Amino acid sequence: MKKNIFVLLAAFCLGFSQTIYAANDLSLMEKASAAGMTFFWDTLSSGGMLEKNGHQLSFRIDDPLVVLDSSAMTLTDAPSIENGVVKVSQGFMDTAEQYFKESESGNGFKIGAILIDPGHGGKDPGASGLISVNGKKVKVQEKDVVLSIGNMLCARLKKAYPDKQILMTRSTDVFLQLSERTEIANNVKLGENEAIIYVSIHANASLDKKSSGYEVWYLSPGYRRTVLDKSKTEEDKSLFPILNSMMEEEYTAESILIAKFIMDGLEPQIGRDSKARGIKAEEWFVVRNSNMPSVLVEVGFVTNEKEAANLNSGAYLQRISTGIYNGINAFVTHFERSRGFISKND
Hints:
alpha/beta; six-stranded mixed sheet; 2 domains; globular; Copper Amine Oxidase, Chain A, domain 1; 38% helix; Aminopeptidase
């Protein structure tokens, strides 16, 4: 990838910046459809994009430079526009088809597993609150709320991603030590170039009965941990601290992105009933001991009677699960598009 960029810059410095024209006698919309690509076009910017299986090729009219998944560039025949129709040459289509073929050849990074962790369970009820239902006091327990959300979320993820491992630390009312949860996460078997993300689900509590809202936590960037297995690192052992630090920073950045996407996913689902408390950093056990991008979602306060009543509603929990799902889906799409192609020149 880096070599591609340097060669490209050199070409422009040598005067290669002039437009490349070819026999543009093909309708891009028609050719893209026939090749199973999705075609996007923006009239105002005179730019467009082809997309296939989560990968993108971006282009502009009269420009020979195309951008691949926002991470690599190459030169091809410049597209043109005639009577409102985007026209390209066979050379342009060959470039696109070859790129998408290489992207599907197993060289790309992808999310191979998603682990959902409903907190507490069994003898550990977590936080609890009381609400009135038909004149009777009903206890709302965190372990029940998050298990329902987790099972709904798991079912939806399995349907959306049949090619990924969709896992749960618990799918029934059982007790797990915190160390057991992170052990499950750290021992998931992944394929080459596959990554895993960890989403822990909880409900909140406060002595202030008026406290309400949802929030997402990630590990404090200042917390230092070992995320790589030194025994499995083939590089010079003296490089291990550097490699580990780089991986720590990557996990932090990705955890922040997951947190943001989940917050953005929850807002349209429950924002009118509960307030957004933002994304925050903390050294929770499960996020500091899981060697992967990880977040902890607090879906609301069971100690707030109004919010507890919502958390006792199956329909409301379904909305929460949809919001978390939408956030995870947005992150998976972002991750696989931005890291899904590795140039053979790297």
